[in-house]
Amino acid sequence: MLPMLRILLGSQQTGLILVILLLGAVLSVFAGYHVDRSTGELVNNFLNSRTLMQTATDASFFVIMAVGATMVIISGGIDLSVGSIYALSGVMTAMVLRSMAPEAPFAVVALAVVTCVSLGVLCGLLNGLMVVGLRVHPFIVTLGTMWVFRGVAFVASEAESILVPQPLTDAIKLSIGSDALYPMPMIIMLLITAAGAVYLSRTVMGRHIFAVGGNVEAGRYAGLRIDRILVGVYVISGLTAGIAALVGSSYYGSASCADATGYELYVIASAVVGGASLRGGRGSAVNAMLGAMLIVLIRQSIRTLHLDQNYEWVVIGCAIIVAVVLDQVNRRLTARRLAGADRAMTV
Amino acid sequence: MDRNPANSYIEFDRITKRFPGVTALDEVTFGIQAGTCHAVVGENGAGKSTLGRILTGIYGLEGGQIRIDGRPVQFLEPGDALDLGIGMVHQELVFCENLSVAENLYLGNLPARAGFVSDRKMEERARKLLSAIEVDMDVETPIGKLPVAQQQLVQIAAALGSGARVIVFDEPTSSLSHVEAERLRENIRHLKSKGVTSIYISHDLDEIFRLCDVVTVLRDGRHVATRPVAELDRPALINLMIGRTFEAYFPSHVDTEPGGEMLAVENLSSPGRFEDVSFSVRSGEVLALAGLVGAGRTEVLQAVFGLDPMATGGISVSGRPARIRHPIDAMRSGIGLVPEDRKRFGLVLSLRVDQNIGLPTLASRSDFGWIRGSREEDLAGEYVRRLSVRPGDVRYDTAGLSGGNQQKVVLAKWLAANCPILLIDEPTRGVDVGAKSEMHALIDQLAHEGTAIVLVSSELPEVLNLSTRILVLRAGRMAGELSRDDADQGAVMRMMAGV
Question: How many Cβ pairs within 8 Å bridge chains A and B?
Fold first, then answer.
């Protein structure tokens, strides 16, 4: 086999993309057709711009959070509180907008962005400081803040759903062409993923995250400020949860303390399906995006194929386990090949 | 001595083992007599550990046959070897650290009634098992709390307890102190007197001369020789191992006049670790810190590098007092630490060679936090070439390198950081003979070029060969200082032991 082809096939990215395309193709074949009322044309139930865009939009909220959460996982930690940070920043931002009620559409958007993002960052900072300062395992710290943040959201909003001003929804629902397609969430998702990928691969901080997750002691001996790096990843995770909340509540037109319940597990699943190791030291923003897309696509397929909705969790659960097992098998095969090559070199 | 495997207790007959892309053992044929201590030596990658693992059933065979007492045997899994009386003491330990000694010994066979474990019975049996090899230890202690040496004794007891007549030792002393290693060797001699056959895999040649009866040399997966140890001397054995003539090493930096004082440490203390340690190193000098394990050598280096928050005392660099509270402070003062355990402290194995070499200086070489990938590779490439790290590809995974090459990468990290002061801790532990002499040459060359070096090593020949001066520590205190001319093995050893 050609070496390039082997590298391509061996890479996890290719594997994920292939699986996504394959699943998409299967869905298109089995989805069936319906007649578009306005044009009278026959339209595939899956392979049409509206369904595809809707799937991408569904994925975008997970993906944005998964980019930050992946960094936490690469650093060897975990963030269970991202769903709650989403709810808290969303609710608080909606309340700030309601009470301050700015007039100009630009002012609304600017205030929303600043409030929502800083709330996310603040929550992340709190997580990070507790992980570092209290020396408690991040699973415990963020399990606690998962309930605390959501609880605060409940108390603050009195468990009511709060409408967000129309300019925000208008901004996120900028449509292209004559069709009512809203690509903004997808565009933001792609931008955040790209930013995350660049941050991880091209910046000093990004490299330090890999080093700390790979071997925290070696990092200490190399003079890294371990505590700062760790606080940093939780801040980033809070930041992305804040951005997701901004996009989500704008898109849906309201924020509620029950938003994003259980998202943390989808987010962690996305990162892990994307090849991140819960032991730290390994992961990728782009792969986390692909992982999230795969999960959302599996969910979509249940709807498209008119399967019993109740099976959704069973299918997703199985898919996550299968994906990770396949990834590990692939990794083991690669490692064996490498080990062979290495011995060939030392002998 | 019988080089023909026939008539031996264990016969290896044309043993062949392939891993993808490489033949680890190529038609290896030799025999082991019952009741002897038989050494298997060779450089890293020679196939000696593979052979041990084949005999204990961890690896399967691609070709050839193992015969025990004349009967061909076939192992499908490790348990099979144990059933035939072959046990193994591993280099890395294989216990559940949270469980007690007794629980570990009987993990596969817990004495129980109706599913309830009888602790009393289990501990009784464990004590009996340990007393059979004349070891006295508290069997209720969690095994993770015992020193490695004691854990190895438990492994021996476990092997004997399951009826082993042959025990394979894979580099058993590589993580032991002198005293512990000697005690282990004493135990192996004791086993021999009881008729147990030991197969001793090692690259510590001194040990082989002290302990073993017969030695088999492997090179590049092939059998080179099987000879009685008494017929060989050290250079001859090394020649067999490396297949080239061994030249004793003489450092060149000793002849050059040392420069100005680079590092001065005054009354450095850390509660429970060491007390009142003072020394100074000049540019172009190698100061060796000698001492037994536990004397506080590593701890002193850690304190100088800012890794010990409890440390008190004065450190000055180039005559100016330096406040060192974090490795970053040490690095800013031009101090680098090449740590003792490369896998734990030296390397991030999940990162590539260039990424590891660049790690300490990544921030200072970046453009406002942005990594210049090509710059990183160029820098790493320079040191990979200079230290001849193999393979020479800077994009290689560090996890795939041999021990010696990993050690070079750790050294390269600090060379790349341009440190005029290097603290080097056990630079040749667990690396093969070839890499060892390369490492010695490098340290000498660095000193020759003006680096001030503080070297910690448990190998006396290394200390004596490489150093300009030797500072001996004993139980956390300074026991004395020797100049190169006054120092010999005996003098240093006496000072270390305090006799």
Answer: 111
Question: What gap in Å lies between CA B221 and CA B244, rounded to an integer?
Answer: 17
By C-alpha distance, the chain B residue nearest A343 is B22
Nearest CA among B94, B57, B49, B95 for reference residue B77: B57
Rounded (10°) CA dihedral A262, A266, A272, A278: -10
Taking each helix axis from N to C terminus, what angle separates B403-416 and B373-386, rounded to the nearest 10 degrees? 120
Residue B393 near chain A (CB below 8 Å): no
Residues of A in contact with B45 (CB under 8 A): 343, 346-347
Using a CB-CB cut-off of 8 Å, the residues of chain B touching A202 are 370-371, 373
Q: Are B156 and B187 in contact (CB under 8 A)?
A: yes
Exposure string for B288-324, b = 16+ CB within 10 A, e = fewer: bbbbbbbbbbbbbbbbbbbbbeebebebbbbeeebeb
Q: What are phi and psi of B449, to 5 degrees?
A: -85, 0
Q: SS3 of A45, please?
A: coil
The answer for A 87-126 residues in CB contact with B (under 8 A) is: none
Provide the pairing of β-strand B286-290 with B452-456: parallel
In a mutational test of the B interface, the residue from A6, A73, A343 whose CB has the highest number of chain B CBs within 10 Å is A343
Q: Is B333 helix (H, G, I), strand (E, B) or coil?
A: coil
Query: Residue B401, SS3?
Result: coil
Tokens representing B171 are 């580099």
Question: Which residues lie below 8 Å from residue A284, measured CB to CB, with a gap of 6+?
Answer: A13, A70, A197, A200, A274, A275, A276
Distances, alpha carbon A330 to alpha carbons A10, A74, A317, B58, in Å: 7, 20, 20, 23
Question: Which residue among B44, B331, B350 sits closest to A210, beta carbon to beta carbon?
Answer: B350
Asked if A339's CB is within 8 angstroms of B371's CB, the reply is no
Q: Compute CA B399 distance to the chain's CA centroid, rounded to the nearest angstrom.
A: 17
- What does each of the 499 residues of chain B score in pLDDT, given as a tens digit? 444 555 788 999 999 988 765 678 889 999 999 999 999 988 766 788 888 888 888 888 888 899 988 889 888 777 788 788 888 887 656 678 788 888 888 877 778 887 888 888 888 888 988 887 777 888 888 888 887 778 888 888 888 877 788 999 888 876 677 777 888 888 888 888 888 999 998 867 778 888 999 999 998 788 999 999 999 888 788 778 777 554 555 677 777 788 899 999 999 999 988 999 999 999 999 999 998 767 889 999 999 999 999 999 999 999 999 999 999 999 999 999 999 888 889 999 989 999 999 999 888 888 888 888 788 888 899 999 988 888 888 888 888 787 788 999 999 999 999 899 999 999 987 777 778 888 888 999 999 999 999 999 877 778 888 899 999 998 889 999 998 888 877 788 778 777 6
Does B391 sit behind a cis peptide bond, omega within 30 degrees of 0 on the bond before it? yes
ipTM over 0.95: no
Task: Flag if A214 and B351 touch (Cβ within 8 Å).
Answer: yes
Contact B466, B251 (CB under 8 A): yes
pTM equals 0.77
CB within 8 Å: A218 and B360: no
Cβ distance of B45 and A347 shorter than 8 Å? yes
A6 in B contact zone (CB under 8 Å): no
B397 has a chain A CB within 8 A of its CB? yes
Contact B350 A219 (CB under 8 A): no
Task: Establish if B221 touches chain A: CB-CB under 8 angstroms.
Answer: yes
Contact across the interface for B20 and A218, Cβ inside 8 Å: no
In this complex, is the C-beta atom of B21 within 8 Å of any C-beta atom belonging to chain A? Answer: yes
CA distance linking residue B473 with residue B274, whole number of Å:
9
- Which of A204, A208, A218 is opposite residue B346, by nearest beta carbon? A218
B268 closest CA partner among B217, B209, B310, B206: B310
